[in-house]
Design goal:
By secondary structure, the protein is mainly beta. The protein is about 0% helix and about 40% strand. A five-stranded mixed β-sheet has the order 1-7-6-3-4, with no helix packed on it. A two-stranded antiparallel sheet has the order 2-5.
Length: about 120
């Protein structure tokens, strides 16, 4: 994420490189980006294009109504149920699927909102 600090109206870019594990998200893959402000309000909750290998770049304008303080930014593959009760990757269907999800922990990045 760049920059790590912004003001309302400022631009922030969230990006990720391609995964090295060949996740096969598909040609119409999407990333869901959520920004939650210091008051706990989701001020951005949208999807953006993601490539088959999980790489993406999404730039957003910090909303004017955002609470000042520490916000969080989370980006997760959209429409993919990675974390069922068995810990298995539900996308890898078929008789030869042996992929097992190790952790369902989400990666959340801090974003400092200032005036």
């Amino acid at each position: 994420m760049n920059p790590p600090s912004a003001t309302p109206g400022g631009m922030v870019t969230v990006q990720a490189s391609d995964a090295g594990c060949d996740p096969r998200y598909g040609e119409n893959a999407r990333i869901q980006v959520t920004v939650t402000d210091a008051a706990g309000t989701k001020v951005i909750n949208t999807t953006a294009p993601m490539n088959d290998a999980g790489g993406f770049t999404y730039t957003f304008e910090v909303p004017s109504q955002v609470a000042i303080g520490d916000a969080t930014v989370e980006a997760t593959p959209y429409g993919i149920d990675w974390c069922d009760d068995t810990g298995r990757n539900n996308r890898a269907a078929g008789p030869d699927a042996t992929i097992v999800r190790v952790s369902c922990a989400a990666r959340i990045e801090p974003l400092s909102i200032t005036r």
